[in-house]
Amino acid sequence: MSIKVTIHGKNGNSQVFLGEVINQLSELLPDKRVILITDKNVHDIYGSLFADFSPIVLAPGEEAKSLRSLEFVASQLIDLQADRDSFLLGVGGGVVCDLTGFMASIYMRGCEFGYLATSLLAMVDASVGGKTGINFGGRKNMLGTFAQPSFVLCDPIFLDTLPPQEMKNGLAEAFKHTLLQDWSLWPHWTEHIQTMKQGNAEALMPILEQSIRFKAQVVNLDEQENGWRKILNFGHTLGHAFEAALGIPHGEAIAAGMMLDLDLSVRYLQFPSELAIEIKNWMKSVGYHDLRGQLALPLLEKYIRNDKKKSDDRLAYPLLKNPGEPELVSWTFAELIQHLQALWVHE
Ligand SMILES: NC(=O)c1ccc[n+]([C@@H]2O[C@H](COP(=O)([O-])OP(=O)(O)OC[C@H]3O[C@@H](n4cnc5c(N)ncnc54)[C@H](O)[C@@H]3O)[C@@H](O)[C@H]2O)c1
To answer: How far does residue 263's CA lie from ligand 1's centre (Å)?
Structure first.
């Protein structure tokens, strides 16, 4: 079974294919020179599937989203005599997708590209929606573009080899989508979390489908994040601060950010408090942690502020009225800190 979802971008559409779709790759690739961009981990496991294409192989990990890697890839493209008519195929997790998309959107003023997403996080989030970029000046995604890949392939078969920590990272983002959009999947989460953690494709398909459809729906309303797309930042403002302050994996940090945002939702949007407790307890039971005990608020504040925020900055901050009912509240940065103080005091 395979599912196709379309994203309508300002500068072109993107087709996302989910399911047993790896065999569709050859049909989707245009009749052009294809250059593969991937990372070493993925290349070591799956390189033989792409032996027909000239490969550019990055070191694995977030460090690859750097100006240095971009320069490396650009030099390799020149060495390979790639031109505007070449097609860049990114095969990997979110890092490879973000870098490939950015490179493709600027190489010789832009060439066509597509992704084969191999991590859960890339399938449920990073490969979908057309945000590309690299980190710069100690800040995430400071340089980047909005550019839609011609196609994205998400085939859960690749998750068989994904390390458990990476599954946990992706599951946190997918759970965010369930909280924001379709609460009917809650029983599925509670019943199948263990098999999902093991990468079981059948158990993962409903949450993959929901995430991709939801993300496409939001992006189709607000591709360039002028407003509504900001709801996808639920758990992320605080999560990114935890990630930077404690040096913990992205999914753990986002989960902790979501727990706090649930508490803020209870206090300021009357999200049902019993349900918030039930959700947080379940999250803890499956291995995520409430991290507020591990970080003093002033330190967290410093890291949130590092994200370019000033006291009078107004944020469109995503909270939930109910599961599936997100709302953007307008707070200044100073107000956010004040609201967080209340949570730290009562903990
Ligand atoms: N563009 C967007 O909209 C968007 C959205 C969310 C996240 N992101 C970005 O995505 C990045 C994180 O993505 P990620 O979590 O996929 O990280 P990643 O790309 O670093 O992949 C995680 C690890 O898993 C390995 N891996 C990937 N697929 C594998 C497979 N099938 N088998 C074995 N190992 C595999 C990678 O080599 C890497 O070591 C961040 O840089 C984040 O900013 C972008």
So the answer is: 29
277-301: pLDDT as tens digits: 999 999 999 999 999 989 899 998 9
- What integer is the mean pLDDT of 314-322? 95
Q: Which residue among 113, 145, 164 closes a domain?
A: 164
> Are 29 and 160 contained in the same domain?
yes
Which tens digits make up the pLDDT trace of 19-68? 999 999 999 999 999 999 999 999 999 999 999 999 999 999 999 999 99
Tell me phi and psi for residue 336, to 5 degrees: -55, -45
> 98 CB less than 6 Å from ligand 1?
yes
55 and 148 fall within a common domain: yes
Whether residue 191 is contained in a domain is answered as no
Q: Which of the residues are catalytic?
A: 109, 131, 173, 215, 225, 229, 233, 236, 240, 250
How far apart are alpha carbons 261 and 289 in whole angstroms?
14
- Centroid of ligand 1 to alpha carbon of 65 (angstroms): 11
| pTM beyond cutoff 0.90 | yes
| Pairing, β 87-92 against β 34-39 | parallel
Residue from 37, 97, 119 to probe ligand 1 pocket by mutation (most atoms less than 8 Å from CB): 119
What the block records as the tokens of 111 is 């060439």
> What separation in Å is there between the alpha carbon of 99 and the centre of ligand 1?
11
Host domain of residue 252: 234-347
In a domain, 147, yes or no: yes
Q: Which DSSP string corresponds to 19-65? A: ES-GGGHHHHS-SS-EEEEEEHHHHHHHGGGGTTSEEEEEPSSGGGS
Residue 252 burial (CB count, 10 A)? 21
Here the CATH number for the domain that contains residue 131 is 3.40.50.1970
Report whether residue 164 contacts ligand 1, using a CB cutoff of 6 Å.
no
Q: Residue 221 domain-assigned?
A: no
Residue 325 belongs to domain with CATH number = 1.20.1090.10
